[in-house]
Specification:
Elements lengths: L2 E5 L5 E5 L6 E5 L5 E5 L5 E5 L6 E6 L5 E6 L3 E6 L5 E6 L30
Antiparallel strand pairs: 1-2, 3-4, 4-5, 6-7, 7-8, 8-9
């Protein structure tokens, strides 16, 4: 198929077009993991582990090489899409990553930054 449908506890369903050139899709789960799937075969490629609370969301980096997860355990994590390995644990939230605060992290170091500026690209 050319579309992926999702369902959510917020009483919504979404349909996504998978013909975006991406080869992977990711899901976040209450089992404290995220899963990465191959779009063409539908087979699971990686189970991303490391959180101690259920996952709230998952998002790909613009280049598709990294996946970020947000959890109820007060942390976000960044994973390499090809290997499934954890790259960074982003700490700093005082509650669930939906704690109504915005944190800015350096994606290369995983460290929280104290000042922000826009990237030229």
């Amino acid at each position: 198929g050319k579309r992926v449908a999702t369902a959510s506890w917020d009483k919504t369903a979404k349909v996504f077009d998978v013909e975006t050139g991406r080869k992977r899709v990711a899901t976040a789960s209450w089992d404290k993991t995220a899963k990465v799937f191959d779009v063409e075969t539908g087979k699971e490629v990686h189970t991303l582990k490391g959180h101690t609370g259920w996952l709230m969301s998952v998002s790909f980096s613009p280049d598709g090489n990294r996946v970020a997860t947000a959890s109820e355990d007060k942390m976000a994590k960044v994973f390499d899409v090809e290997t499934g390995e954890e790259v960074h644990t982003l700490k700093g939230h005082t509650g669930c990553v939906w704690d109504k605060t915005a944190k800015v992290f350096d994606v290369e170091t995983g460290k929280e930054v104290s000042s922000v500026s826009f990237s030229p690209d």
